[in-house]
Design a protein that fits this description.
With about 140 residues, the chain is mainly alpha-helical. The chain has one domain: Cytochrome Bc1 Complex, Chain D, domain 2. Helix content is about 45%, strand content about 0%. It has 8 helices and no strands. It starts with 7 loop residues before the first helix and ends with a helix.
Length: about 140
């Protein structure tokens, strides 16, 4: 039965649009799966999530670096900034968003990529593995 104020073609188009995508309406997008790379290896994680700001060589010259308010630090000198010792636990807490970085990655509530590493709803342990692998990879990049 047609409503007198709605043209038939509008009613038909509306009905067709509603029937065309029932699966989409039932399954909301899952942001974790759309932003998460498959690899859990440190080098791949670095390339996917860090190099755009910190650069491929980790020295702070990524393609987005010029547009940032605070220049990204040289990640190959973490040892030098910490008395010659790599602070693995601190690096892990920064990557996961548990420890804030002044003028850096944002707050705990909205870190740039913290959810990718530590708040993966379907597998918290795998998120922790990613954080650890990335931190250990950064340790291998340190200059002597």
């Amino acid at each position: 039965m047609n409503h007198p104020s709605i043209p038939a073609w509008i009613a038909t188009a509306t009905l067709a649009a509603g029937l065309a995508s029932p699966a989409r309406a039932q399954q909301p997008p899952q942001p974790e799966t759309t932003r998460l790379i498959q690899s859990i290896q440190g080098p791949a994680l670095y390339t996917a999530y860090c190099s755009v700001c910190h650069g491929k060589d980790a020295k702070g010259g990524g393609s987005m670096a010029p547009s940032l308010k605070t220049p990204p630090p040289d990640l190959t000198k973490i040892n030098q900034r910490n008395g010659g010792k790599f602070p693995l636990a601190r690096v892990v807490s920064i990557i996961s968003g548990e420890q804030s970085v002044p003028s850096g990655h944002g707050t705990r509530e909205m870190p740039i990529w913290g959810p990718i590493f530590s708040q993966v709803a379907w597998d918290q342990d795998l998120g922790r593995v990613r954080v650890d692998n990335l931190a250990k990879y950064l340790e291998t990049l340190q200059t002597k």
